[in-house]
Amino acid sequence: MPELIDLKPQQVLELLETDNVLLVDVREMSEYSAKHIKGSLLLPMSVFDPEDFTAIKGVKVVLICALGKRSVAAGKQLLQAGETTLPLFNLEGGIKAWAEAGLPLILAPEDYSI
Q1: Which of 7, 23, 28, 43 could cysteine-pair with 11, CB 3.0–4.6 Å?
Q2: Domain of residue 60, residue span
């Protein structure tokens, strides 16, 4: 039975280097545009639908948000809906922890504004 497993930023980085991983960022567009992990897919909680995951096969999914709370909520939705048998992970501490660990982020230009 699938479960949501917390991973520290360094563990996520190692997983990215060794496995087939789909990073799913559940923050909103403005947050994602300001900074995000390279290669992550934006799927905001405001439009998050567990059914979107039914066609995804053969990857490990890492859910990402700002602090790790919305990504846990998204993971719980996926598990409760029974829409995935994929290995499911949560970036513990979110983008904040990723940045604090000194890991790379795609940043918006300084003059970026919405």
Answers
A1: 7
A2: 4-107
Active-site residue list: 65
CA distances from 57 to 35, 66, 83, 86, 103 (A): 27, 26, 11, 7, 27
Q: What is the mean pLDDT of the chain?
A: 92
Residue 112 lies inside a defined structural domain of this protein? no
Residue 95 is part of a domain; what is its CATH number?
Answer: 3.40.250.10
Domain count, the chain: 1
Give the global pTM. Answer: 0.92
Q: Which residues contact 56 (CB under 8 A, 6 or more apart)?
A: 22, 84, 86
pLDDT in tens, 12-52: 999 999 999 999 999 999 999 999 999 999 999 999 999 99
